[in-house]
Amino acid sequence: MRADAMTALGALRGRVGVNLPAGLTRHLGLLAVLLLVGLITAWNSSAFLTGANLLNVSQQVAVTAVLAAGLTLVMTSGGIDFSLGSVAAVTAGVVARLIASGTGEWTAALAGLAVGAAIGFGNGAVVTVFRVAPFVATLATSTVLGGAALLIIDGQSVSIGDHLDELGFGEVLGVVPATVVVAALVCMATGLVMRWTAFGRNAFAIGGNENAARLAGIPVARTKLLLYTVGGLLAGLGGVMLVARLGAASPGTGGLQLELTAVAAVVIGGTALHGGSGTVAGTVLGVVLLGVVANSLNLLQVDAHFQDVAVGGVLLVAAVTNHLRGRFR
Amino acid sequence: MLDFSRGHLRSVIPVAALAVSLGAAGCSVDDGAGKSAVPSGEKITIGFVNGNRVQFHTCLQRALQARAAKKGVEVLTANSAMDPGRELSNIDDMIVKKVDVIVVQTVNIDSLQGGVARANRAGIPIFLTGVASGVDRSKILGAVVADVEQVGRSLGAWLVEDTGGRPAEVAIIGGAPGAAADLMTGAFKKSAGTRADVVFEQPAFWQRAKAQDVAENLLQARPRVRYVLVQNEDMAFGAEAAFRAARRTDIKILTNGGTAEGVQAVKSGRFAVTVSNTPKDIGEMAVENVVALLRKEPSAKKFENVPETVVTKDNADKAPPYCV
Hints:
Chain B: Residues 53-297 form the Periplasmic binding protein domain. The structure holds two protein chains of two kinds. By secondary structure, chain A is mostly helical.
């Protein structure tokens, strides 16, 4: 039975492997689950496979995708950043406060990015200089920032009116939402950086074996510092996108919920928790899968009590199938 | 603002355990109701255990503190940050501090039974705000509650009036599945009658961002929907953003809250109707009733519903203030 499955999978790989780009063949299992969920939803709801709905899904996952791209970078180097969701919440709060107090919208957005990058730099410093385990360090900052986000907005929704609506509601070429374009650009850039730059390769090397990387002359501390800063910067961008889309910074936005979604997407996407391997393509597939599942739960009107069960079940199946290929190699 | 961490709990547990065992040894379980009246000259200390840090809870605490200051009552506060376990330890802390009464804006009414029992054993009366359903009323000093079923009924009645009894497709974007959200939905459906066809019902977990996503998905699944009940105003703003982006301003939003922003949105036509039941009223009434009950004044009211106003464009100018 298992031997059969192995041959079948091998044959499948042999047949389609040549036709698909390398980034996708690696994630055949994940793609299969995504297609399956899509098929089931399309079968039961005629609304699923419409252009408008697919654009909706892409818009709903844009912020998660931006955070997850940054997280993929950090995690390939063997690190983890649990504070990204809270960074997004803090940034959203700062941007909303600045705009509400009369600062220009794009100045405020830039300030938000700077805040994100600064927090990321702080995380990186704690991890590299004080050698605190990244899990602990970022969990601590995440808690601090979660509180800070509420303090910044004073526990209330801070509206930005129709500021930043070019980003939140704008469309490129009249169809594609601006946030989706931003997310796509971020993911492509991250993919290119990971594949084609010394910085990206260094991240893989550090994740594979940090001591070996150091002995090979890779500037480990500097690279890590930069990785966390980029992660923070992207989380800041996510926060700006959140506030633009929502039209307000609101308590409960971002934070742990968003963080866990991003972590789940990256891990389902095949990035190793211990570092040394990972792709942005996998992460994007993970993000899209989570978005499609949330969308189909609404379209199929799954009872509220079953939704968590359904999401968790799909995650489990996706994670298992995505790792099957590795086992059969 | 005072806050109590888990570390604090560790030092409290032995004391609480001792208190419990002493109480059991004496076989005298005092539910606080049999206590003699606090004389008017004696200062009252309220221990307020708040449930969260969002707008409603912040306003509730401010209103309670402001009214207490006016009445010369001292208030100690703690926040449970949506964690029922922390709520219990906060109640324990208040017992140790020997406050005269513990006022709880509970995180989850179902997990509050233990807290009520502990306060009873310590002989400290406990008073609830917001919700009190499912709690044995003889075990608590009293409560000021927002009747979510009444909110559902009022909105259902408004819907019937607005449709003129003609059939219409209706959607519900709820909070988290559970007591309050389900009660409101049930009452709404019943009051809206059979001509209102509820074709979509999904939770958004009281989050604005999630409500926006759900509303977008709603437009795909049920484009003919004309009325949407969104169970709080923050979520309603998320849904409204989704409808506006899809240029579907024809969909009428029915919601609940009464915040300044919400009332403003009713004025400008972004929401069709909201029900105002404000934390300001709850906080103020809680202090008034607690003091009256402790002093055994004849006017004392054990259980009271917070007043609710259906706010539409016509009366939005006269909507009561949400915060102090």
